[in-house]
Design a protein that fits this description.
With 293 residues, the protein is an alpha/beta fold. The chain has 2 domains: 162 residues, Rossmann fold, CATH 3.40.50; 107 residues, Rossmann fold. The protein is built from 11 helices and 11 strands. It has a 7-stranded mixed β-sheet, with helices on both faces. The protein has a 4-stranded parallel β-sheet with strand order 6-5-7-8, with helices on both faces. Strand 1, helix 1 and strand 2 form a beta-alpha-beta unit. Helix 1 packs across helix 10 and helix 2 packs across helix 3. The chain is globular and about 50 Å long. It starts with 16 loop residues before the first strand and ends with a strand.
Length: 293
């Protein structure tokens, strides 16, 4: 099934898939919400673990990876692309919309607006990657809402890697979280925005450190709702009932990814097929291609 045609002509296929990508397993926090809200929609998920973490890479690198993954998703039948990665959204969302003007994209941005609306202390913590803070999206959020509350950005060095390694509550991860969160707690925040899709998997540990007086804001449910709105606006909803197909790809070895998928997703998660993919040189730069087992 090929939904995207290089000529730019698109023929809507209502049963095509929702494409989702991230640098690794973090985007599963968004994927599971999409699958929950839209149980009849087929999905494709790409974890670019070969290049993980995106947060420490240049914006140009992340744009290149995001473009290659988008082409891969469109080739495999995506009707919409959800960038389930704050870093990739900050670095590449506008870039992708220019290259693929007829493709609907849904990106991530730190949920600053609801945090500012709910704060009582006037201090809002934002935990994200360095690249997210350097992107245009966060600058716009600061301009729009920074005058209504004090935004306190904190780079989550090493947290995405801890999630990828399955170290969700290890002593080393807890120590890292305390290092990052202590300045925010001491500054008096009462809202913490999770600005990386890996971080919701650390939520129990974060809540343990910050205590009940700090609200944790995970944007995944809102991103899923926005995906549904875009599908409705484009009249791309899959109106057929029945079991949805969920096909995952990783650009690193399958077995570790499979193990983490099983650990991070709830037991009642629909059946998922996991396949390998790899980057290889192509005419338009490196291309992501599916591999046979």
């Amino acid at each position: 099934m090929n939904f995207y045609r290089p000529s730019g002509k698109r023929e809507p296929n209502l049963a095509a898939s929702i494409g989702v990508f991230d640098s690794g397993v973090g985007g599963l926090s968004v994927w599971q919400e999409i699958a929950r809200q839209f149980p009849h929609e087929h999905t494709l998920y790409v974890a670019d673990q070969a290049h993980m973490p995106y947060g420490s890479r240049s914006l140009a690198e992340v744009q290149t990876f995001s473009e290659g993954i988008t082409r891969f998703l469109l080739h495999h039948g995506a009707k919409i692309v959800v960038i389930a990665c704050n870093t990739a959204s900050a670095a590449a969302l506008l870039h992708l919309r220019e290259i693929f003007p007829e493709v609907p994209f849904v990106g991530m941005e730190p949920a600053v607006k609801p945090a500012v609306e709910r704060t009582r202390t006037g201090r809002v913590g934002v935990l994200a990657t360095q690249a997210t803070f350097q992107g245009q999206l966060f600058a716009k959020l600061t301009d729009a809402y920074g005058h209504n509350a004090r935004l306190l950005p904190q780079i989550g060095w090493g947290l995405a890697q801890a999630v990828e390694a399955g170290q969700l509550d290890s002593p080393a991860t807890l120590a890292l979280l305390r290092q990052h969160l202590s300045p925010l707690r001491e500054a008096g925040i009462d809202q913490l925005v999770l600005g990386c899709t890996h971080y919701p998997f650390l939520r129990p540990a974060i809540e343990q450190i910050l205590g009940p007086d700090v609200a944790i804001i995970d944007p995944a449910p809102a991103v899923a709702r926005q995906t549904g709105r875009v599908l409705a606006q484009r009249r791309l909803q899959n109106g057929r009932e029945g079991a949805a197909r969920h096909l995952f790809f990783t650009s690193s070895p399958v077995k570790p990814f499979e193990t983490m998928v099983g650990r991070l997703l709830p037991a009642q998660t629909p059946h998922i097929q996991i396949r390998p993919a790899r980057w290889q040189p192509g005419l338009a730069g490196d291309e992501l291609v599916a591999m046979e087992f």
